[in-house]
Amino acid sequence: xVWLGLDDxxxxxxxxxxxxxxxxxxxxxxxxxxxxxxxLWPFAEKRTRGNASVGAELxxxxxxxxxxxxxxxxxxxxxxxxxxEPVLVLSKEQASEQNYWAAVRRxxxxxxxxxxxxxxxxxxxxxxxxxxxxxxWTGEHDHxxxxxxxxxxxxIGTKRKIPLQLHMLDEKxxxxxxxxxxxxxxGLIAPRSPCPVLLGIRAESAEEAESAWQWLSAQEGIEEPExxxxxxxxxxxxDHIESSIEAVILTNPIIREKGHCSVQTxxxxxVAFAEGGYVNKLLQKCVExxxxxxxxxxxxxxxxxxxxxxxxxxxxxxxxxxxxxxxRMKSKGxxxxxxxxxxxxxxxxxxxxxxxxxxDWVEPAGDRRRHLAAPLSRMQKS
Length: 382
Ligand SMILES: [Zn+2]
What we know:
A hairpin with a 2-residue loop joins strand 14 (261-265) and strand 15 (268-272). The protein has four domains: 2-136, Alpha-Beta Plaits (2-Layer Sandwich); 144-233, Glycinamide Ribonucleotide Synthetase, Chain A, domain 4 (Alpha-Beta Complex), CATH 3.90.600; 245-315 and 355-378, CATH 2.40.50.1010; 318-353, no CATH class. By secondary structure, it is α+β, with helices and mostly antiparallel strands. Strands 5-4-1-3-2-11-6-10-7 form a nine-stranded mixed beta sheet, sandwiched between helices. It is elongated, with a radius of gyration of 26 Å. The chain has helices at 17-28, 62-79, 97-105, 127-136, 166-172, 206-217, 278-285, and strands at residues 2-7, 32-39, 52-58, 87-91, 119-122, 144-151, 176-177, 180-181, 186-187, 197-203, 225-233, 245-248, 254-255, 261-265, 268-272, 291-299, 302-312, 316-319, 330-331, 338-339, 346-347, 352-354, 359-362. The longest helix is centred in the first third of the chain and has 18 residues, at 62-79. 20% of the residues lie in helices and 30% in strands. It is built from seven helices and 23 strands. The protein binds zinc ion. Zinc ion (ZN) is lined by residues 323, 325, 327, 340, 342-343, 345.
């Protein structure tokens, strides 16, 4: 048995590394298992949108696989996008999982990659990190599944034909997730780019992902697919996140052009972009003194929020109480009673204002989340 990893065959303009790998395995005509789709650190340089890499365990010898890849390498290069730097890695052993954790949580420089002694590499450049990371991932702590369906070449670039019974997918296959955005009744299984993917069904189990597609593929009006592939994935597992962070807000929010919102906290600056939807709206509502908890990645010194909750809100529109005589009371100093400057009445009530309750976790709409991000519905699992 031997491990094969691949990355960086596509570009923002087109192509898809998962489809390339699916086709490559077919052409190699070699049995395989544990095909994996592994998403990596979202801020990596030269990444394409989803920053996905792929791999599988091949059920043949190292030498057999080596010969088969030699035969396919030119074909693969010709199919790659111009700006891509594709790399294939063949390794006798599964590569060290350290590679994966570094590549999913931070910038992993090439010189830090741990490559097994008995391995062979085709190509060079940015694809190396993803190709190694894909065969380093074990997913033992958590994983999900995706049934990916590919389009006939003649259909690529045209409108995808998917029947609208997506709410039934949720009902019939409760182990699937991210099928649609229930608030907007918008489907989430199909990408929006002109890539070769018709759709992907994400699920907690392989069986659930496969049977959901079997059912959907039998519905009237569905586009005829070219091929399908079942992937074990790190999607929705939160592997890019070490832990949530509790913080106290130090400044009222600054709302910039397009609604991007940022605040200073005692743990650093946090930002919620307009695309963050509910997260952005909640951050806008926060004020100085609020205690929050958030999940997000720090990039160039700023936390990019992915999920947020308001743990302990302070009073809004905070004022000193009004005295019975109509004058606003004043504080005489820290730890002292509040006193009316007019009639000298004192009170123990330091502040009045509007109370608001805590607000539980919010997340962006389904199509605005990172592939890596655990939806709130499976936050406990990950
Ligand atoms: Zn008074």
